[in-house]
Specification:
By secondary structure, the chain is mostly helical. It has helices at 2-8, 23-39, 43-59, 61-65, 68-91, 98-116, 121-130, 150-165, 169-176, 184-191, 195-212, 244-268, and strands at 181-183, 224-229, 232-237.
């Protein structure tokens, strides 16, 4: 994953780039780049990348329906990205586009609801649904160098270790969002933990939040921030403002695309035949 991220730093994912000339190539490259970010815990970057490419896939859906040999693979990539996006948004809650939210509810709505109720087994199902196939990086005489589960099982173990570290963070976040300041002793009673354990959880929360923030995502996009002053926790709720300007620009671009499509079909329509 680290190597994939280093390679991605030299690849440009722009709408006018040469890769954009082959839509299936652009979708596949973005899927693997997002998964690389996912495995190094840059969840905000994963969300940002997948939201962009899922919106692109929605706009070009008609293009792939006319190419049956690509439609199945593109639909599979769409489902894989939605599964990984559901996990990433659980670890790093960000505002999702409405169209992406609707897709997640349609495809993974039941599993997302189970995640919100603390069902840890759902993570395995979503990870297996979203992850690509893995290859062994080494050649060994041992037919099963990674055990009976293979490289895929090894990656699952790495992911489950991250899930275990994130286990208490959603509960901790839900309590912190209710207060502007709260003593550590009071929070410890709510969580049924000792004060030292609560301090460790707060440090883990802060650490995970900084990692998940990513390289290009601004701090204000995260839903909550806090600091500890002696025995008191001070919370600042950074509510995400709606970006009306971005939404307006998106609608203008959609209108321009629709006008181009209408004008193109009008120009390609044969005119009335003149009688001799």
């Amino acid at each position: 994953a680290w190597y994939q991220r280093r390679v991605r730093g030299h690849v440009q994912f722009k709408d006018k780039d040469m890769m954009a000339l082959v839509p299936a190539c652009q979708i596949t490259a973005n899927y693997y780049a997002g998964f690389a970010f996912f495995m190094i815990r840059k969840y905000a970057n994963t969300i940002q990348l997948y939201q962009h490419i899922l919106g692109y896939m929605q706009r070009t859906k008609q293009f792939f329906q006319n190419r049956s040999f690509q439609a199945e693979d593109i639909n599979k990539k769409n489902d894989q990205m939605l599964a990984l996006l559901a996990i990433a948004n659980t670890f790093c809650p960000l505002r999702l586009d409405e169209s992406v939210n609707i897709q997640i509810k349609e495809k993974q709505g039941e599993k997302v609801a189970r995640l919100q109720h603390g069902d840890m087994t759902v993570y395995d199902d979503l990870f297996f649904s979203g992850c690509p196939k893995f290859l062994s990086p080494v050649v060994s005489d041992n037919p099963t160098p990674f055990g009976t589960s293979g490289p895929r099982g090894l990656q699952l173990q790495v992911f489950k270790a991250e899930v275990e570290q994130q286990r208490l963070i959603p509960t901790l976040r839900s309590f912190l969002k209710l207060y502007t300041s709260i003593p550590i002793s009071k929070l410890a009673k709510f969580l049924d933990m000792s004060e030292n354990e609560v301090r460790c959880c707060l440090m883990a929360f802060k650490h995970k939040k900084e990692i998940a923030r990513g390289d290009t995502v601004d701090q204000t996009t995260l839903d909550i921030d806090f600091y500890v002053d002696k025995d008191m926790i001070h919370i600042s709720d950074t509510k995400i403002a709606r970006h009306y300007g971005d939404y307006y620009v998106q609608q203008v671009l959609k209108l321009k695309d629709s006008n181009k499509l209408i004008m193109g079909s009008a120009l390609s329509r044969p005119g009335p035949q003149q009688s001799a």
